[in-house]
């Protein structure tokens, strides 16, 4: 007779897997909110002539910043610094990706309500994940 199989031990870092899903949900929420904001303000999110994939790539890079913010915030004793750092990182990587395309794009994005909304919304995922995993 064979020995019973041991129960699999749980992952020591479940926030890494959950962070991927939370970052994707954050990106979809930002995409939806920016769409509503574009209709309400009657304004394009990116008014300068750029390639068709710039917005998607910038959002993808910002999503990576949110993921890293989640991974680094969950083990912290308090989530506030991680949340502020994640919001700042989203703002800065969006400006940096704009600066790679054109300096005027980076300057236009610096005061854009779409970028500011994405940065404000980026503070929530690290706090939510920290609160969830702190109880486990």
From TrEMBL:
It comes from the Bacteria. The chain crosses the membrane at residues 20-41, 53-74, 80-101, 113-133. Keywords: Membrane, Transmembrane, Transmembrane helix. This is Uncharacterized protein.
